[in-house]
Amino acid sequence: MKAYLVFEDGETFQGEWIGTPKTVSGEVVFTTGMTGYQEVMTDPSYAGQIVIFTYPMIGNYGLVAGESESHFPPCTGVVMSECYHEKELGNWLDQHGVPGITGVDTRAVVKKIRAKGAMRGQIHSNPIYMELREVLPDSIQWVQSVSVDEPVFYKASNPHAPHVLLIDFGYKASILGSLQQLGCKVTVVPWHWSVEEILKLHPDGLLFSNGPGDPKALIPWLEGWKSLAMQLPTLGICLGHQVLAMAFGARTKRLPFGHRGSNHPVRNQQTGEVWITSQNHGYTVCEDSLDPGQWIWTHIHGNDGSVEGLMHQIYPVTTVQFHPEAHPGPSDAAGLFHQFVEQVMEKKEVKGVG
Ligand SMILES: NC(=O)CC[C@H](N)C(=O)O
Questions:
Q1: Residue 153, strand partner residues
Q2: What is the DSSP code (8-state) at residue 255?
Q3: Are residues 125 and 150 part of one domain?
Q4: Has the ipTM of the complex gone over 0.85?
């Protein structure tokens, strides 16, 4: 059955339906990883987006138990050149109501996005862009749709384990897993929790997660997050990086077509070391908005020179635009979790003495 990827400028690309044959709209983005389609499709940061895979064959190693980053595929739709094991992937997408298209000339689509910048599109059964009557969800609604509603507690076997609060804008399971592997007790809390609600749980450290949408939508909450980051060791990943940077005075802007893939080079500006990192973001912190009295600009993107990591001058706050938890992608940056947990342990010991 024919399906179309229709851009808001009217250009269309033809393919065949896969998953649930229903019309959806979203920002059309592309990811360049050669593997990791399952992790990408289940990454909550893709909520509201139609994801194009540049690797020509998707589905070739099936769906692997334990490799998903959330319980369902939160992306709005998927577009691929060829789908192998089409039944398995198609049925799974259909079970979760996610539409997709296969047999699309993905190279041509990506060339278009690279030339014209990110734009909205639809997956549709007709080659026309439909003006939708319903109001599409905004960034806050996307975050709300993938964040927990109630706190979720993950115990540790050691009763003296450090307690990390994971502020959930749509966290990837691998972030929780990275903290648990290092022996942390973790509580995942709703993104909008107040300072008082958070401090009541007596955390030793905070991790601000990745998540969908425009970080500017979260400006009303920055003051509270700043006061928390001034009190506790804090790590921010992707959206978490963006909101913490803004909380301490920086601005964010949209990238022309984003960084999404498993091989983005990032240079540590202090040591010169280069990591190959996993990335998925459309916004970035504006370099010229970084107050040198607040932030040390630690990591820079090797391709376009954009801000990839920050460390606060005074408080133990570290933030990265890339994904140290990988999944998909290399774990060059996994040491950041060790550093963070060390800071959290130090804080816990100091508290214990006091
Ligand atoms: N993975 C993320 O946290 C993405 C952050 C933000 N939604 C962006 O696209 O830039």
A1: 187
A2: E
A3: no
A4: yes
Quote the ligand 1 centre to 312 CA distance (angstroms). 21
Q: Is the separation of the CB atoms in 189 and 201 below 8 Å? A: yes
Any idea what the CATH number is for the domain that residue 125 is in?
A: 3.50.30.20
Assess whether 349 and 215 both reside in one domain.
yes
Residues 6+ apart with CB under 8 A from 269: 297, 298, 299, 300
Does ligand 1 come within 6 angstroms of the Cβ of 211? yes
> 311: helix, coil or strand?
strand
Q: What is the pLDDT of residues 250-304, one digit of tens each?
A: 999 999 999 999 999 999 999 999 999 999 999 999 999 999 999 999 999 999 9
* 54-73 pLDDT, tens digit each: 999 999 999 999 999 999 99
DSSP assignment of 60-125, as one string? TT---TT--SSSS--BSEEE-SEESSHHHHHHHHHHTT-EEEES--HHHHHHHHHHH--EEEEEES
Q: What is the pTM of this model?
A: 0.97
Does residue 282 have its Cβ closer than 6 Å to ligand 1?
yes
CA of 10 from ligand 1 middle (Å) equals 27
- The CATH number covering residue 252 comes to 3.40.50.880
Give the three-class secondary structure for 190: strand
